[in-house]
Amino acid sequence: MAKLLSCVLGPRLYKIYRERDSERAPSGVPGTPTSVTNPPSSSWDTYYQPRALEKHADSILALASVFWSISYYSSPFAFFYLYRKGYLSLSKVVPFSHYAGTLLLLLAGVACLRGIGRWTNPQYRQFITILEATHRNRSAENKRQLAKYNFDFGSWPVDFHWEEPSSRKESRGGPSRWGVALLHPEPLHRGTADTFLNRVKKLPCQITSYLVAHTLGRRMLYPGSVYLLQKALMPVLLQGQARLVEECNGRRAKLQACDGNEIDTMFVDRRGRAEPQGQKLVICCEGNAGFYEVGCVSTPLEAGYSVLGWNHPGFAGSTGVPFPQNEANAMDVVVQFAIHRLGFQPQDIIIYAWSIGGFTATWAAMSYPDISAVILDASFDDLVPLALKVMPDSWRGLVTRTVRQHLNLNNAEQLCRYQGPVLLIRRTKDEIITTTVPEDIMSNRGNDLLLKLLQHRYPRVMADEGLQAVRQWLEASSQLEEASIYSRWEVEEDWCLSVLHSYQAEHGPEFPWSVGEDMSPEGRRQLALFLAQKHLHNFEATHCTPLPAQNFQMPWHL
């Protein structure tokens, strides 16, 4: 009876992965009944095949879940319509509640039928036995057995907790349960006394900004967190996860962040191979509709690196919602997991981000300054200009206030706090992070990210002459145009390197540098163009084109 109840309440099972011959154990899972043994190898080659009763019950419950999601998103309009028609009176609500209660009882009955279908399936009974054994005893063997199954990630046991590192328990400067530290924007009106009357005047605007951010704004910014989209992408995500596990020997893990959110991760270890890049770990930060199953992790994997992918809060197996604070909390526990559980030193970790993933990448670079390098692909400097592009001009004040208070992705500000090597990859046909049209390459916000980084690190070089030369270079949309501008100013790379090496030897490596202070305008132009060319590479593609492995290069450094 207990097993039947476990089958009723258990998670949905999607796939049983192929078992490698080298991993096949001779006996069952320690600590579980002797009936739990490894199935024949042929059973690992296909998706889990539910019995007819389970299959049809699952379809009914999935359809009910989709209808519930549609009802949730349309509820404000539905309530408004019902109110206008007078259907919200007590005499109308009571019968409706009876219908709703009857429907819930029917769905509960369907769930029980699904449990009976699972109970009659030996594969599911074996799975639920292994899952229960793993929750009781999280031994390495139990986890290895459980990793052969792909199921609803909510039932996966937590593998790493944010407080697990001993240094966190002893340190007072680490994250609290409220979250890690973020850079907060300055007040819009500096010098204004923050009196009670001013707070009251601001209250309606603050309430409106909060409602916009937590309804329309968050879903526009992170469409991958919308349940209906995830439901549509589920077959693709399952295929991508199967490829990572079966072909790349990936290991899935659940991490618990300081805010309680559970983060879904996938680690591919290449340290045992002959290629030297396998000793380096690339932590991948996906875009606003990207998942590690089908995202940018493929680029460093093809290049031979060890890779750690993770999903934003609210994406696929990760819980929560993707607001900046939750994003930074998730990134923090991912980095801690890489250092304290996977055994990588910060000097062996590279942060690679695509698009909106630049926020968590720059936060990690700012918060973990010993990280080896940062690579930002198709990223931007600040969210406000991009948000203003897609919203009505009359909403400018509301959009700016909402972004600054609730969705402040200040990539450039965070990146300028990092002292290590940085490479920016600009898509010359990018249609997402341009503020006008894709053909207008100067409206690409990656340009502003580069300019702010160089102006912070080399303020004397990026004076009038240097800034003007870099802007001209950024206007080039092809390698031929780049080379033409580069040769026009007769950039001598050996001379630029000697100047930078001499300054570093005399003043040390910490930015900002005052190099170029006593330099001629021609020298500043040369040095500015040299630095721009080292920090930004063009890729002739649109925003969502996968980056080829040959374009995944380590950033330049002295």
Describe this structure in words.
- The protein is built from 19 helices and 11 strands.
- The protein has 558 residues and is an alpha/beta fold.
- It has 3 domains: 133 residues, no CATH class; 220 residues, 3-Layer(aba) Sandwich (Rossmann fold), CATH 3.40.50; 136 residues, no CATH class.
- The strands form 2 sheets. Strands 3-4-5-7-6-8-9-10-11 form a 9-stranded mixed beta sheet. It has a two-stranded antiparallel sheet with strand order 1-2.
- Strand 8, helix 11 and strand 9 form a beta-alpha-beta unit.
- Helix 1 packs across helix 3, helix 12 packs antiparallel against helix 13 and helix 16 crosses helix 19.
- The termini are far apart.
- About 4% of the residues have low confidence.
- Keywords: Hydrolase, Lipid metabolism, Membrane, Transmembrane, Transmembrane helix.
Give a quick set of tags describing it:
558 residues, alpha/beta, Rossmann fold, 3 domains, nine-stranded mixed sheet, two-stranded antiparallel sheet, 11 strands, 47% helix, globular
Helix fraction, binned, reads 40-55%
Please state the CA-atom Rg, rounded to the nearest Å.
Answer: 27 Å
- Secondary structure tally, helices: 19
Number of domains: 3
Order of helices and strands: HEHHHHEEHHHEEEHEHEHEHHHEHHHHHE
Main sheet summary: 9 strands, mixed
Structural class: alpha/beta
The CATH class of the largest domain turns out to be Alpha Beta
Count of strand segments: 11
Domain AB hydrolase-1: 281-407
Membrane topology: Multi-pass membrane protein
Family: Belongs to the AB hydrolase superfamily. ABHD16 family.
Domain Phosphatidylserine Lipase ABHD16 N-terminal: 3-152
